[in-house]
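Task card 7
Instruction: Convert sequence to structure tokens.
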Amino acid sequence: MRSISILGATGSIGASTLDLIRRDRGRWQVTALTANGNIAELARLAREFSAQVAVTADEARLPELREALAGSGIEAAAGVDALVEAAARPADLTIAAIVGCAGLAPTMAAIERGGTIGLANKEALVSAGDVMLGAVARSGATLLPVDSEHNAIFQCLAGNDSAHVRMITLTASGGPFRDWPQERLVTATPAQAVRHPNWNMGAKISVDSATMFNKGLELIEAWHLFQVGLDRLRILVHPQSIVHSMVEYRDGSTLAQLGPSDMRVPLASVLAWPERMDTPCDPLDLAAIGELSFRMPDEARFPATRLARQAAEAGGAMPAVLNAANEVAVAAFLAGQIGFTRIAAHVEDVLSRYAPPAPDCLADVVAVDAEARHRALALMEPA
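Output:
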């Protein structure tokens, strides 16, 4: 039996992880489950999986959580410090799936403990890459990427020397607006943006897919994870979302990982690593799919990938500024405060106005993130 903690248990990644665990209950002991504010679902899952502790990020909801868990013997806790304490508890595997920079401190706590972390929070590496990788080196922690693209790269590298890599290609679905002309993008609504054609994801990541910021953040994450340099990382739009990423080697061989558009596939790779496990996903029927197509991203219509690469090239705190500004802009778009094409324009505006020094520790990253959000919000206010 292996122990597991799931940070962000009520989100899509948490739900997919627990679905796989549910199918093989005898193999897993759940240590900690955390959630933001979905108390009813958190309590239900904690009871179902006999978790040791359930934690909500919202301190004001602690009485509600305690009431929902009454008589279960499951510990209830709340607040940022409680999230960090839960992440630091011994577990064979921690799935870090708290969305955004709210997941930074808990993910760092799991890393500093020195365990194995299934990293689904891309913002952690984007905003705090150097700081986080420094902690990995000190603690001996193991990072296993959960994102389908990075998990695919991880599988294609499979112990090969990165010096032999000629190019790593991250594939992008292109999102729901991939074929829209520029003039139509201006009219895109939040309801349209969250309807991803291939994946079932939360609102924020669905908007990021529509703008291509998701792929820009993944480019920065891959730069940190695989250490091959930005010149050996590229993005291709692949509308079918069957090839999740590719690694080309210096001898001309290209290895690709293919699979259905279901996050349970990369999660199963992480849960079973270094072995394999069954999933309920249907096998690929390539004859039925019939065609796999690829094209270069259009950075005129979707400038997010250009901005992400520029932020990575600048280094230091700039990826954190990019991420924070994007989170603010996406929230404003979902609230109907700005138009779709203003998301990237607003991020570029913040990047041009704020260039803080490189962070030395997590506290520095948090400070940069807070200041970037403050400036991003201020720029939205009418003059």
